[in-house]
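I had to read the description of the data format several times before I understood it. In essence, backbone conformation is discretised, so a fold becomes a row of integers matching the chain in length. I therefore recommend that a typical entry be quoted early in the introduction. For illustration, here is how one protein appears when written out as sequence plus structure tokens.

***
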Amino acid sequence: MSTQPSRQLDTFDNPNPERDYTIHIDTPEFTCLCPLTGQPDFADIAIEYVPDRLCLELKALKLYFWSFRDEGGFHEAMTNRILSDLVAASEPRFMRINAEFNVRGGVYTRVVVEHRADGWVAPAPVELP
């Protein structure tokens, strides 16, 4: 196999660091293991972030998500760990992780976590007529 799961998160220079803009990334095939039963948990992980100096490189991000496939963890812990790792790698102005775990036993779980850089203020939304 030419690629393997990896926890290394690569970045590249933001081509427009003078401007606030939002990057949306959706990963509908995230898998990890239930820490109690060992059964697989499936989730759609949505990332929204405003980069500062760095942007996340997508192939490395894919391999990073793949690295959770055989790891057990509660949904809340997984989502917070992902946010912490992505923030540590890219130091964004703002980042939100929205993890929607598939139903298990009639229960859906949605965990949303956010990071805001010190001093960063979101621009006011523009309302057009």
Observations:
- DSSP finds two helices and six strands in the chain.
- Residues 21-116 form a domain with the GTP Cyclohydrolase I, domain 2 fold (CATH 3.30.1130.10).
